[in-house]
Write a structure and sequence with these properties.
The complex is a heterodimer of chains A (about 350) and B (about 190). With about 350 residues, chain A is of the alpha/beta class. Chain A has 14 helices and 12 strands. The relative contact order of chain A is 0.13. In chain B, a hairpin with a 6-residue loop joins strand 3 and strand 4. The chains are: A alpha/beta (about 350), B alpha+beta (about 190).
Chain lengths: ~350, ~190
């Protein structure tokens, strides 16, 4: 396994839209991607009032096969359940997380190291977790904001690396959704945050011994797409791409990831509130067509996409679905399905861009 | 994202001092509060009211209360810390308005009283001047005028979509539109 071949690191919550999207991506792209799965509860049903997360893990395993992946759990209150709460508990060196990984995952995965300053102020539990599992994993991951002070990076990363054997560490710098901040203050302050954090982490003692890669992660897909353009058609910038353009000179030490064109906060659509829409992207922009609900909305939208001069097919599953819909036979007529189409095409586009 | 920050209390007081420094008489305007929110990285579109409470150094407690009580702002026994309590049984959008309303009391009236208990908002003929001002402040905080006008235009006046964007009730949108003298689009 050549870990240096990974060039794209999408963060994916384990909801149906995300899982359907990545499972539809061709292996030639997948081998260049190291996804970060953020486990969320599964769908609540009559027989599963808990929303068992093992169902989601089994879906991940089926999608990834032998391909490695980074495994994290969500801290989103709406996506958590009692199982996830326990996996995030620092008690006894995060023993629930440790045992759950042992029971359910092989050692090909890259486990996330949790950091919880509220309940583990001196990081003794995080250190105990790392000390207990470092012999099992070739790589582990640490996900931090990009706006910490130098002393904070030194404290956190120093504590973690002091417990590592030969395990190498991915450090994910994640600022979440940057859309509003870029609109208010421009891209430069955010770029500077990532650059400073990357510089600090890369210069920590003996970094070449333990640092695998630093990953710049952000999202910018808007909460309300129609607010970015007209009601029925529009376009908007992909700020993750702008960030990449500003920071790519730091490669290969700095790599790039995002939220796969899915809104970071994952607003649940209530019945009756969505307007059918089909999106597509270039490297730097998203384009959309949108038509208020009546028979044939997706057919109309897909036809418009195919006729748009900015549309370039990736010959992917997502493109196939757009063609089918334009021909009058859409496979899905719910927002989740078309999020999958968008995310599938977006991730392929990112890999194409990043491998240049 | 499995990273939980240290208590943000030092940053809270820093933000609070910053607002105080620019306010002169200790009373803050909506614009001043929004400026500080932006500087502190608090999402303002729609406004993250809980994060703003943090910046102002106000604690939040969400607990079930009688249905006719929306929430309250009170000074702790130590005489220093302010606490907002919000009715956990109310709709999240209503809780957001309640929090914004209590922020308004904090920004405008904290020198006058140590406790503000708030019943239902938007009652017809509200005659208490402090409550009228707090409602208006909360409304401006959650739906700043330029953005509100933009959204009404972009969303073709769909009250539901405007309310959904700002995460407020449709009633709050109607009241805001009325106060801005906006008509048409079904807003009046």
């Amino acid at each position: 396994m050549d870990w240096t071949s990974y060039i794209y690191f999408p963060v994916l919550k384990t909801k149906d839209a995300e899982l359907r999207a990545i499972s539809a991506i061709d292996a030639s792209y997948r081998t260049l991607m190291l996804p970060i799965y953020e486990i969320t509860k599964s769908r609540i049903t009559k027989n599963d009032s808990l929303g068992d997360i093992l169902k989601r893990l089994n879906q991940i395993k089926a999608i990834q096969g032998d391909l490695p992946y980074i495994l994290d759990v969500t801290t989103d209150l709406k996506q958590k359940n009692a199982q996830i709460e326990s996996l995030l508990s620092p008690v006894n060196g995060y023993e629930c997380w440790n045992h759950w990984l042992d029971l359910n995952c092989n050692h090909q995965i890259v486990p996330m190291i949790h950091v919880n300053f509220e309940l583990d102020e001196d990081l003794s539990e995080a250190k105990a977790f790392v000390a207990a599992v470092t012999h099992k994993y070739k790589k582990m991951a640490l996900r931090l904001p990009a706006d910490l002070e130098r002393e904070e990076y030194e404290e956190i990363v120093g504590a973690i690396t002091s417990q590592l054997d030969d395990t190498r560490l991915y450090v994910l710098l994640d600022e979440g959704c940057i859309r509003d901040r870029v609109k208010v203050s421009g891209l430069a302050p955010i770029t500077n945050l990532y650059q400073q954090a990357f510089d600090i982490i890369s210069a920590l003692p003996d970094a070449s011994d333990w640092l695998e890669r630093v990953i710049c992660i952000s999202g910018s897909f808007p909460y309300l797409v129609s607010a970015e353009g007209k009601d029925d058609v529009g376009e908007f910038a992909i700020y993750e791409h702008s960030l990449y353009v500003s920071l790519k000179h730091n490669r290969p030490g700095l790599q790039f990831g995002d939220y796969a064109s899915i809104n970071v906060k994952q607003i649940e659509m209530r019945g009756g509130t969505f307007v059918p829409r089909v999106d597509f992207c270039s490297s730097a922009k998203f384009y959309y067509y949108r038509k208020r609900r009546d028979a044939g909305s997706y057919v109309w939208c897909a036809g418009k996409v195919l006729a748009d001069p900015n549309y370039i097919s990736n010959n992917s599953w997502g493109d196939g679905e757009i063609i089918s819909a334009a021909a009058g036979i859409p496979s899905g007529i719910n927002p989740s399905f078309w999020i999958s189409v968008r995310a599938c095409n977006y991730m392929i586009r990112r890999v194409k861009e990043l491998r240049i | 994202m499995a990273f939980i920050r240290k208590s943000t209390k030092p940053k809270i007081s820093e933000g609070f001092e910053q607002v105080e420094a620019i306010s002169g008489d200790g009373r803050f305007s909506v614009a001043q509060v929004l400026d500080v929110a932006k500087q502190k990285g608090v999402q303002t579109s729609p406004l993250d009211v809980k994060a703003l409470l943090g910046v102002l150094g106000i604690s939040l407690i969400s607990i079930p209360m009688e249905d006719d009580i929306s929430g309250m702002l009170s000074l702790s026994d130590n005489g220093k810390d302010w606490v907002v309590k919000v009715n956990a049984l109310h709709h999240p959008n209503r809780q957001r308005f309640t929090i914004a309303h209590e922020i308004a009391h904090f920004c405008r009236h904290r020198f006058l009283q140590a406790k503000f208990e708030d019943l239902n908002f938007f009652r017809n003929g509200e005659s208490n001047q402090m409550e009228v001002e707090a409602n208006r402040f909360a409304s401006e905080l959650l739906m700043p005028e330029p953005m509100f006008r933009d959204k009404v235009r972009l969303l073709s006046g769909s009250i539901e979509e405007v309310a959904s964007f700002f995460k407020v009730s449709t009633l709050a949108v109607r009241v805001r539109a009325k106060n801005l003298g906006m008509k048409g689009h079904g807003l009046d």
